[in-house]
Write a structure and sequence with these properties.
heterodimer; A: mainly alpha; B: 2 strands; 3% strand; globular
């Protein structure tokens, strides 16, 4: 085994986005602490930092493996990092006016979003299970605080505590699984593990390790049956946080899992692990879509719909090949746009955060607040996978890879549950355009230029990717091929 | 800009522009919608001028890459099967705006935008020569129709809108799975190693009998729901009764034809063996639909519901003709699709006229209004006679061709279906009798104003075509003949190589043209 120098040349460029975000987060806190009079620049500053990180990601960072074979920069990590940055930006845009309205804006809120993004980037780029866990923990700590950020609202505290307790368990599972893998393979490095797996035989120890890891990651993904935290946490969390939480950590977990599954590749035909994953995926699609039907609270409905969507994405994980990785990549980007967009519109409802945000609150919105109504309708069409939105093209990609890999039954479950999902997504549209608001109540919405900007980005993204997907597919396909060639 | 793209995108472009109109400028909005859809109709007439009567394959072909990685392209083309359906779509849309001129009070802007988006979607579905592109348009038309029924519909509109949507989406999502599988199989077998979703290329896909059967049912289910074929028709009466007049006209006039068009364009040529094998099932369901639809129509107390069930019956004829699988029946079937669009479109429009004035559609509330509304009565009777199939009007030609063609394939089916013609005469003339003749029993009917200028203006063009098709059907049949011949040959496995080459040549020359245009553009 060759020894790598610990700091390869060019490492600063490689982790420049992470450096920008980490330092920027501290800057935000300092500004808030020492210059409280210019509080108004916090959100624009956070946005600027995200944009700077995206710029560094896209233009400065160079591909390669750094830090002794533990940290990889490649096109796929760049695509995922950009997804995290996009999610972060949308969250900041929606949070700005929301926090102002709830009178709780603070530098640490944005700082936590920035640092959480750093954690996700580590998960995406880590070539070592320990580094992935470390990234996951950085992310989780930020989430604990962000979910409980509305500290005057009991629901927010409850959600935070719930996520903390269950998240701690999940991390425990992941660490224990990692330890067992280390016991079997003598390394936590994915590269070393890949070599080891290529000649390995299945042992009960490995199966236990896999089950533990899947339970932990399944929790982070809100994959059924590890999902029950999701509706409660999303409902209690400040709505812009819920939108971000429903997308970004899942994307980070998915890319980490792709790496892991890819490393196990040669081993998988010998074991029935993937049928476990298939069962999780099927269960998620069924539970998510079935339970979403009876939800009247929008945030809970979106939580269950999110469970179903992770089920769809997991279909593509069943066989890791370049097309399926590309499908997951495309799906996460699209999902970020449509789900954060949907949560974003919900976050504009002026309501006591302790009360549920029900369908009745958006009755008649479509003709009263036209832009917000239209944006929510587009997000719903996209979530239900109707053309010409990006949701259709992303789902098409998932089902296409599933059929090409021979997972027709799971794809069929996906199709059948999609039909059910149309019902509850369209119900939102029904409330938007066909239902008159209850006597005496008008849908109250509060939003300014930031929220409008975020929704514009979401709409343009959803329709743009839906109508002209070729370039994104090209990029995702190439990135996936490079990832899997190693 | 090439002609097909112009026809396709003109309504959508108009819809986008309309979004910026101030909502108070109602006349401007309606006028602009009318103008744009009329412009699309005028442009679409250009198809007839450049039409090559001898060509069986797609004409005016356009081809651009869309998602090259998957072989999905932006491919447009029109042949004898789709030509009249495209023209029917562009013809009916302006008439809707015209007829709704004074009846539209609630959110006129969104109404006009919805119909323009729908027009683009429907034209796109008829023009697409790429299976995925077809699917995109096929689903796209659901959204505006859902809104049209749900926002502007009657009392029970929500139920009807959701039922309509869920029924259709359930079928089409299963078809999506079939589309992906078909494309994958084709890619698997292709010698060139490039994926494609081009319809003509997919015709050559080899399928195992079992796969072909499953795909046949996946596709057929989607289209049978859309037609709707008995016993999948239950969404239709609800949707029609609750939809506003314009929605009903488009739904019956064009959208149902997506189903029959889908059978012709995809099911027969993709799965010829399964189609022949299961043709008895399809013929049986069609015959049941024809008779059942007619009997149920007979007992309807509501005019709109009556016309809706008559659609079930008439569309049964179209499917019957398709699965008789010979030239006569298929030509008749295509012609009958147009006929049904005209006659049922006119009937829904006419029912809308009295509903607007009296706010009831019950037969029992009318009687003897021929005296108060003479012009209206004349137009109504013409539409009814066209629907019944009176010789000299369009319905006769279509039904005659279908029945005589079906008789060659299955005398029993043809004989049973013929009773549907008799039943149609009974329930439709019954309707005329109840509404127009006899004494005026309801005092409120004494002062109904007769049909207005805009409604007459919308109906007269329809009547003109009813007579034209009835008197000189050859104008229409001639243009579809080569394509129908080619289709029947494909289904029977007697591929005519000459036609195939002609097709290839046409595509190649179209590609050359595109390249040339691109170079000029540069």
């Amino acid at each position: 085994m060759t020894l790598h120098p610990l700091l390869e040349p060019g490492w600063v460029q490689a982790i420049l986005p992470e450096l920008i975000l980490s330092a920027g987060g501290m800057l935000l806190i300092l500004v808030d602490a020492f210059l409280p009079r210019i509080k108004g620049i916090l959100a624009p500053l956070a946005l600027l930092l995200f944009i700077a990180a995206a710029w560094a990601e896209a233009l400065i960072s160079r591909g390669g493996i750094y830090f002794g074979g533990t940290y990889e920069m490649s096109p796929i990590t760049a695509l995922f990092d950009l997804t995290f940055l996009l999610a972060g930006m949308l969250a900041v845009l929606f949070a700005r006016e929301y926090l102002e309205r709830e009178n709780m804006e603070g530098g640490e809120f944005y700082a936590l979003l920035l640092w959480g993004t750093v954690g996700m980037m580590m998960m995406a780029k880590g070539l070592d299970l320990l580094l992935i866990v470390l990234g996951l923990e950085i992310l989780s700590i930020c989430i604990f605080v962000l979910v409980g950020y509305n500290r005057r609202a009991p629901v927010s505290n409850e959600a935070s505590l719930k996520y903390f307790l269950m998240g701690a368990f999940a991390t425990g599972f992941i660490l224990y699984g990692t330890a067992l893998f280390y016991g079997a393979t003598q390394s936590t490095n994915i590269g070393v593990m890949t070599r080891w797996f290529s000649g390995a035989q299945s042992t009960p120890l490995l199966t236990v390790a896999f089950v533990l890891l899947m339970s932990g990651f399944g929790f982070k993904l809100a994959l059924a049956p590890f999902h029950p935290w999701a509706p409660d946490v999303y409902q209690g969390a400040p709505t812009p946080v819920a939108g971000w939480l429903s997308v970004a950590p899942k994307a980070a977990t998915l890319i980490a899992l792709v790496r892991l599954f890819n490393a196990m590749g040669p081993m998988l035909p010998k074991v029935s692990w993937m049928s476990m994953v298939a069962a999780l995926s099927t269960l998620s699609m069924i539970v998510g879509n079935a339970v979403a039907i009876v939800q009247r609270d929008l945030k809970r409905m979106l939580a269950y719909s999110g469970i179903a969507h992770v089920g769809y994405m997991t279909i593509a994980m069943l066989t890791v090949r370049d097309d399926s990785v590309a499908a997951i990549t495309v799906y996460t980007i699209v999902y970020a746009l449509m789900n954060i967009g949907a949560f974003g519109v919900v976050s504009l409802l002026t309501k006591n955060e302790n009360d549920p945000h029900t369908l009745d609150d958006i009755a008649g919105l479509g003709f009263r607040r036209k832009f917000y109504g239209f944006a929510l309708a587009i997000c719903m069409f996209s979530l239900s996978g109707l053309p010409p939105t990006a949701g259709f093209i992303a789902k098409f990609y998932i089902f296409k890879t599933a059929i090409e890999s021979g997972h027709t039954t799971v794809a069929l479950v996906g199709i059948l549950t999609s039909i059910t999902s149309v019902y509850y997504y369209l119900r939102v549209v029904y409330y938007l355009y066909m239902k008159e608001p209850a006597e005496g109540s008008t849908p109250a919405m509060f939003g300014g230029i930031f929220a409008t900007g975020a929704l514009t980005i979401a709409i343009i993204g959803i329709l743009g990717i839906g109508i002209f997907p070729a370039q994104l597919f090209q990029a995702a396909g190439n990135a996936a091929r490079i990832l899997l060639r190693q | 800009m090439p002609i097909l793209s112009t026809i396709l995108w003109l309504p959508l472009a108009a819809a986008v522009l309309l979004a910026f109109f101030p909502r108070t400028a109602e006349s401007a909005i309606k006028g602009f919608g009318l103008l744009a859809s009329a412009a699309a109709f005028v442009v679409s007439l250009g198809l007839l001028r450049g039409w090559d009567d001898a060509q069986a394959g797609f004409q005016f072909v356009e081809h651009k890459g869309w998602i090259p990685q998957w072989g999905i392209s932006y491919g447009l083309g029109v042949d004898g099967i789709s030509l009249w359906l495209v023209l029917l779509t562009t013809f009916l849309t302006p008439l809707i705006f015209l007829s709704a001129w004074n009846a539209l009070h609630k959110h006129p802007k969104e109404y006009v935008i919805s119909f323009l988006v729908m027009e683009t979607a429907m034209i796109g579905a008829f023009l697409a020569t790429d299976l995925v592109l077809f699917y995109v348009f096929f689903e796209l038309m659901l959204l505006p129709m859902y809104l049209v029924i749900g926002v502007w519909g009657g009392a029970n509109r929500i139920y009807a809108a959701i039922k309509f949507f869920l029924f259709t989406i359930a079928g089409s999502l299963l078809m999506l799975l079939g589309i992906i599988y078909l494309g994958f199989q084709n890619y698997h077998q292709s010698l060139t190693g490039t994926p494609t979703f081009n319809i003509v290329d997919l015709y050559h896909t080899q399928l195992t009998p079992q796969a072909q059967m499953l795909l046949f049912f996946a596709f057929s289910l989607a289209f049978a729901i859309k037609v709707p074929l008995f016993p999948l028709h239950t969404w239709l009466p609800d949707a029609h009764v609750e939809a506003p007049t314009g929605g009903s006209i488009i739904l019956a006039g064009v959208m149902l034809k997506m189903g029959t068009y889908g059978f012709l364009r995809f099911v027969l040529p993709f799965f010829p063996e399964s189609s022949s094998r299961w043709s008895t099932l399809m013929l049986t369901l069609s015959v049941i639909g024809i008779i059942y639809g007619a009997l149920v129509a007979w007992v309807q107390p509501d005019m709109k519901k009556l016309v809706a069930y008559s659609s079930v019956s008439h569309l049964g004829f179209c499917v019957l003709g398709i699965f008789a699988m010979n030239e006569t029946a298929i030509s008749g079937s295509i012609l009958q699709m147009v006929n049904h669009g005209l006659s049922t479109g006119a009937l829904f429009l006419l029912v809308g006229v009295v509903y607007e004035r009296r706010h009831t559609r019950l037969l029992a509330d009318y009687g003897g209004i021929a005296r108060t509304m003479p012009v209206y009565a004349v137009l109504f009777v013409i539409a009814v006679l066209s629907s019944v199939g009176l010789p000299g009007l369009n319905g006769f030609i279509g039904e005659f061709l279908i029945l005589s063609g079906t008789f060659q394939a299955s005398p029993v089916a043809a004989t049973l279906a013929a009773t549907g013609v008799i039943l149609a005469a009974i329930y439709l003339l019954w309707l005329v009798q109840k509404v127009f003749f006899g004494p005026i029993t309801n005092e409120e009917n004494r002062n109904i104003p007769d049909i207005a200028w805009n409604e007459i203006a919308a109906l007269v063009p329809i009547v003109v075509f009813m007579v034209w098709i009835g008197v000189h059907p050859n104008t229409f049949l001639r243009k579809m003949e080569p394509s129908v011949k080619h289709l029947v040959a494909t289904v029977r496995g007697e591929r005519n190589d000459k036609v195939m080459f002609a097709n290839a040549d046409a595509t190649a020359s179209a590609n050359r043209n595109t390249t040339a245009t691109a170079e000029v553009g540069r």
